């Protein structure tokens, strides 16, 4: 069976953009409006000849602020049930938010590899933006760009090694 990577994170951090890049598909809908991805989406990916499945949980996060808590619990539940590794995506441009902290707390009991991806770090000088996120207490932290692919090679090398 192929390993499963579950992408979690609050709306608008770039989960679907990352999913599309990993799966080279347009299956996942990317939009500026938070919560636009309606369903849980599965895709196939491959790195250095190793195949894995990717799940974009973005569709579970509704537009309504009130429902965020329940939706995030659901994201995390899917991750616990299905993931061999988690890609927890945060937005390096907007910095750490209370929702990021809540997701990190919910993920604490996950015993398999958990990669914290500080996205929207489109150029090397933005590497510093990840400093804000060390306090989430997640060891594997990467500044990446889902849009231009920056540092995704290093991330996927480490992912494959950890599976
Ligand atoms: P999701 O709600 O987490 O699935 O986020 P999306 O993938 O829909 O992206 C939300 C917005 O962030 C879109 O306007 C994307 O173009 C933008 N975005 C995603 N990844 C990056 C990135 O690496 N760099 C920059 N600058 N913008 C990004
Ligand atoms: Mg999405």
Describe the protein:
The structure is a single chain. It is built from 4 helices and 6 strands; from the N terminus they run βαββαβαββα. It is α/β, with parallel strands linked by helices and 163 residues long. The chain has a single domain, classed as Rossmann fold, CATH 3.40.50.300. A 6-stranded mixed β-sheet has the order 2-3-1-4-5-6, with helices on both faces. Strand 4, helix 3 and strand 5 form a beta-alpha-beta unit. The radius of gyration is 14 Å and the shape is globular. The two termini are 12 Å apart. Bound molecules: guanosine-5'-diphosphate (GDP) and magnesium ion.
CATH class: Alpha Beta
**What proportion strand?**
15-25%
Number of strands: 6
N→C terminal distance: 12 Å
Q: Given the helix and strand composition, which structural class is it?
A: alpha/beta
Gyration radius, rounded = 14 Å
Can you give me a brief rundown of this structure?
This protein is α/β, with parallel strands linked by helices. Helix content is about 25%, strand content about 20%.
């Amino acid at each position: 069976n192929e390993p499963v990577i579950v992408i979690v994170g609050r709306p608008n951090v770039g989960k679907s953009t990352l999913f599309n890049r990993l799966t080279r598909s347009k299956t996942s809908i990317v939009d500026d409006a938070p919560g636009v991805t309606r369903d849980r989406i599965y895709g196939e990916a491959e790195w250095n000849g190793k195949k894995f499945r990717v799940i974009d949980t973005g569709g579970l996060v509704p537009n309504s602020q009130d429902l965020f808590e329940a939706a995030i619990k659901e994201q995390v539940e899917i991750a616990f049930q299905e993931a061999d590794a988690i890609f927890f995506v945060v937005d390096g441009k907007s910095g750490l938010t209370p929702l990021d902290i809540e997701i990190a707390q919910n993920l604490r009991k996950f015993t398999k590899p958990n990669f914290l991806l500080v996205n929207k770090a489109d150029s090397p000088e933005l590497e510093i933006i990840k400093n804000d996120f060390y306090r989430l207490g997640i060891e594997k932290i990467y500044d990446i760009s889902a849009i231009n692919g920056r540092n995704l090679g290093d991330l996927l090398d480490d992912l494959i090694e950890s599976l």
